[in-house]
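Bench log. Compound arrived from synthesis this morning; before running ITC I wanted a structural hypothesis for how adenosine-5'-triphosphate sits in the protein. Inputs:
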Amino acid sequence: MSATSDVAESNAAQSADTATDVMIEARGLSKFYGEFAATQDVSFSVKRGEICAFLGPNGAGKSTTMKMLTGFLAPNRGESYLAGINVATDRIKASEKLGYLPENGPLYTEMTPEGMLRYIGEVRGVSGSKLSDRLAWVADKCSLTEVWRKPISKLSRGFRQRVGMAHAMLHDPEVLILDEPTSGLDPNQVHGVRELITELAKTKTILLSTHILQEVRAVCPRVVLINNGRIVFDGPTTDLGSSEVEMEEKFRSLTSAA
Ligand SMILES: Nc1ncnc2c1ncn2[C@@H]1O[C@H](COP(=O)(O)OP(=O)(O)OP(=O)(O)O)[C@@H](O)[C@H]1O
């Protein structure tokens, strides 16, 4: 084989790898409410195994983008892909790859975590020993054992958030999209959820939204920053600064009104 065809073959293999390695992709996502652009031409991708922060101030467009990425909101322009699957045209196949924790997601508060998660598993077509195994796994990973049979209405916000995480992870998806997973939690609960995310990151691709810089530093080596509906930074977290103070300054300069 010639050197040229060697190179061509290696490039082809590389681009095939690259194609399957992109697990989350936003392609030019725009969402308008009347004249107001909630997001404009948002494009970025997250590769297999990455844990990426989607950072931005309040109202920047994080939840809107996540809803479009997960197929819960139709963009006016642009496309979303999960594991290479077009979310708009192949929703069911894409949703098999996806675990989504929406901001303030609904829970069946009259049920127990066990009852609700069993019900969701059955609706998704999992049953028997496979469902029991998955329930045991999420109960353990999300530290839900002590509240497993208590009504969700009686649980603290931290435990409710963990039930939401368990819901997202029940079908063992490859991709997790988590909208402000630590919002409203006390410092101990924040620590617990961050530990869980770090543990999950060993086997999953994760995009998590936050407006907390410490969260990014604690959990995410990569950051995509959105402001006024547009991406203003995409790169390694360390490129935002080597200390918290530097990061705050950079964040402010990238997100202050022009
Ligand atoms: N249904 C809607 N109708 C009109 N405007 C909307 C609607 N949904 C969102 N917006 C606006 O779009 C912008 C982006 O909202 P979004 O919820 O995506 O921001 P966010 O970055 O997730 O904010 P936060 O950190 O506060 O949750 C905001 O100005 C919001 O008021």
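What the model suggests: DSSP finds nine helices and ten strands in the chain. Strands lie at 22-33, 36-47, 51-55, 77-82, 85-86, 98-101, 175-179, 205-210, 222-227, 230-236.
ITC booked for Thursday regardless.
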